[in-house]
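Example S7 (structure tokens).
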């Protein structure tokens, strides 16, 4: 039963972090006059879909690690052949940047509220190095699982929020930091420099093994 409880709380925390990011990005963009076409909470089989306020909302609770907000094309329509203009491109570049940054700033605020201002900021800034410190990963994950075992859910939520925000602001194309890096070429993606496009390979080289190793360590810590 302890393992089931650990898995449940781990799922809840992951879903809370990614769903909060998606909802806050939709709110920020809408406040700037640009509504998303789709807000997708989680991944995997779809549980609920509804249209509200001109936005399609989809709940996919099975895989909580990935949420998405789309600003182009008909909502979740895979049959679309030609890409449609990204609605965020209608914004001034500063507002576009704010739409990317503010949702992650909210997660940093959550970390500061859960851990205290100083500790929350420290955990955020040290989070930028997490994907590159393989030797420290087992201890970090064991410590995080220990927090869940001890019922310190608020601290665990703060740590998860800080680290996820930092990692997503790294200058890698599939992350928010990569979107910020590409803003100068947002209207002319074909002119994206070769070095920026080459970061895709580096991103996969760094993140895929790290994600796989992290999942393995979580499984080992829970099922040992």
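Recovered sequence:
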């Amino acid at each position: 039963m302890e393992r089931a409880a650990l898995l449940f709380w781990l799922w809840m925390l992951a879903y809370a972090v990614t769903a909060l990011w998606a909802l806050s990005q939709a709110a920020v963009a809408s406040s700037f006059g640009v509504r998303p076409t789709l807000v997708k909470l989680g991944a995997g089989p779809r549980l609920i879909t509804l249209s509200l306020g001109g936005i399609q909302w989809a709940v996919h609770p099975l895989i909580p690690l990935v949420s998405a907000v789309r600003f182009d094309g008909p909502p979740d329509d895979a049959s679309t052949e030609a890409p449609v203009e990204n609605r965020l491109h209608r914004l001034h570049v500063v507002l576009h940047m704010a739409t990317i940054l503010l949702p992650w700033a909210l997660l940093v605020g959550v970390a500061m509220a859960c851990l205290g201002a100083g500790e929350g900021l420290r955990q955020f800034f040290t989070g930028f190095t997490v994907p590159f410190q393989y030797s420290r990963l087992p201890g970090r994950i064991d410590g995080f699982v220990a927090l869940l075992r001890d019922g310190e859910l608020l601290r665990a939520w703060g740590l998860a929020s800080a680290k996820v925000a930092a990692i997503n602001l790294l200058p890698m194309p599939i992350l928010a930091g990569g979107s910020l890096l590409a803003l100068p070429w947002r209207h002319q993606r074909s002119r994206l420099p070769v070095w920026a496009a080459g970061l895709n390979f580096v991103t996969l080289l760094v993140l895929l093994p790290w994600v796989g190793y992290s999942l393995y360590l979580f499984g080992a810590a829970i099922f040992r």
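Notes on this example. DSSP finds seven helices and four strands in the chain.
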